[in-house]
Amino acid sequence: MSSYNFCEERNAIVDSKTCVTTGKSVIDVLMAEGLLTPMTDKAFALSRDEKVARIQELMAEFLDVMGYDRTDPELIDTPRRIAKMYVDELLTAHDPAKFPKCTSFETKGKDASFADEMVIERDIFGAALCSHHFLPYDFICDVGYVANERMLGISKLVRIVQQLSSTASSQETLGKAIARAIQLVAGVEDVIVQIEGSHACQRIRGAKSRARTATLAGTGRFGERNSDLRKEFLAAIGSERREIL
Ligand SMILES: [Zn+2]
Fold first, then answer.
1. Whole-model pTM?
2. C-alpha 131 – ligand 1 centre gap (Å)
3. Which residues constitute the domain of residue 61?
4. 79 and 134 co-located in one domain
5. For position 11, what pLDDT does the model report?
6. How many whole angstroms separate alpha carbon 104 and alpha carbon 111?
């Protein structure tokens, strides 16, 4: 197990030997700053199998309370299916082991021209659960950051978005968590994350509206309302309506 510490030079938390940002260091910071849904001390007391078994029992009870006949072939495996889905797929963002391995590389030589330039990864599709209803919201996400002495591989931006959205979170908090994680792994200050989401809790119940929710989370110069960087990013993304679902 390698240790990690804060690297002043890169303004990032890095593995002290390899300069690879560790998943645990990122998750610890996000938790400490309230950017991941809070967990209790008991969060990691149960093993994966114990969680699946317990949630399976509870889902069976839920179906019983609602009066469904669990012996019906369509329902017979539903409690176990739901339990595995939540534990293995939909709620894994707090697991440091699942955080993508993010190695940054120096912007030297032929890549030197990228330093202080904006890198944008747009049209990242994802889905998360809203913390109010545990119903999904599908979203399209655009991420921008200004490269420092180091850069991230672009697929890492997509992987960070996908991994951190495996949780129950408000869209606003998710955007902030993604921005903060990119700050940490890329060792940069200026990050912006735009998310446009279509929330099932608004679509299939309540207002029954297909309205979409847009949120913007900016750090560093992107966090200043009228900054040129923020305007540049928004102009690059454009305002045409993109399909989410
Ligand atoms: Zn909701």
1. 0.89
2. 6
3. 41-90
4. no
5. 45
6. 12
